[in-house]
Amino acid sequence: xxxxxxxxxxxxxxxxxxxxxxxxxxxxxxxxxxxxxxxxxxxxxxxxxxxxxxxxxxxxxxxxxxxxxxxxxxxxxxxxxxxxxxxxxxxxxxxxxxxxxxxxxxxxxxxxxxxxxxxxxxxxxxxxxxxxxxxxxxxxxxxxxxxxxxxxxxxxxxxxxxxxxxxxxxxxxxxxxxxxxxxxxxxxxxxxxxxxxxxxxxxxxxxxxxxxxxxxxxxxxxxxxxxxxxxxxxxxxxxxxxxxxxxxxxxxxxxxxxxxxxxxxxxxxxxxxxxxxxxxxxxxxxxxxxxxxxxxxxxxxxxxxxxxxxxxxxxxxxxxxxxxxxxxxxxxxxxxxxxxxxxxxxxxxxxxxxxxxxxxxxxxxx
Length: 366
Ligand code: G6P
Known about the structure:
Elements: H1 11-17, H2 19-30, E1 31-32, E2 37-38, E3 52-56, H3 58-75, E4 79-83, H4 84-90, E5 99-104, H5 110-121, E6 125-130, H6 136-140, E7 143-146, H7 159-178, H8 184-195, H9 197-205, H10 208-218, E8 223-228, H11 232-247, E9 250-255, E10 272-276, H12 283-295, E11 299-304, H13 306-312, E12 318-321, H14 330-349
Parallel strand pairs: 3-4, 3-5, 5-6, 6-7, 8-9, 8-10, 10-11, 11-12
Antiparallel strand pairs: 1-2
The structure holds 6-O-phosphono-alpha-D-glucopyranose.
6-O-phosphono-alpha-D-glucopyranose is lined by residues 57-60, 104-106, 109, 112, 155-157, 359, 361-363.
Function: Catalyzes the first step in hexosamine metabolism, converting fructose-6P into glucosamine-6P using glutamine as a nitrogen source.
Catalytic activity: D-fructose 6-phosphate + L-glutamine = D-glucosamine 6-phosphate + L-glutamate
Subcellular location: Cytoplasm
């Protein structure tokens, strides 16, 4: 990996475009594509584990949040997900046969490291998903799951996020097999689905001109809401985080079903609502949330697939249509339009995209 911007204007957009390759690389490492099997890292006994605690900060936390859905669904393993600055002080009981997984691009985030040390003092087995292999977190973990993503320079994390998702998905599939939840056929079909992700990411990147045009509109607003259900909920949170980090537009991510319990009060003609909704088993539920937004004059930006576009039957400001894909892989691909939307909005607003104000790439103090 060469650390320069190449033909790109910012590191962030270079890193966004590297994702098909980076994710392909991580998947090739953690999945045996030819045999249709996940390669579980040595030293993690998922068959025996009764609980998984995941902790991280920022974007890495949202990757862990997606992984909670995967581990629970594919491996029937209960997962607690915590922000590291809460995990380290909550004094929660950790089960004897539990595994703690920390996720950190840099491997140096102070709260995440302190969480690791707390978990260790409670006798947990510790796995670390890190990009920087020489980092403190990597050194102190029992098992290291490297992202192999190459250096990430943009302060707002992009390729590390999707590489984290790739590693976590592969591990969840492996855990599902080890725990006897997934049959060999189901494992092979999931592995096949994930092997398509780099191609799907390429397709998503082709939507950049449409997203750039949409960013012109978004750059005029002061607030923006992101909604999603299931694994699209953490992607909504990540989309909102990306937008606020680099464009300084106030953005909130919400579980779509929670709309009526608060954020609906904010909806008016001024409020764009980005809805992340692949045509999955929860799609109809999200459509009713979109109707609630539309009825109040809210402006909907829908990110979906061809079936979702056809079934939504709702007036949107813009519909971004990704290819159809199996539900398990959507978080990796739907991450791309939300990253591009934040990036182009920030460029139009003229902010310092790679070094946003007040933020640091790695927060090594509490
Ligand atoms: C900072 C960065 C974020 C990152 C977070 C966690 O806030 O600006 O992009 O997600 O730290 O960093 P880590 O290195 O632990 O993943």
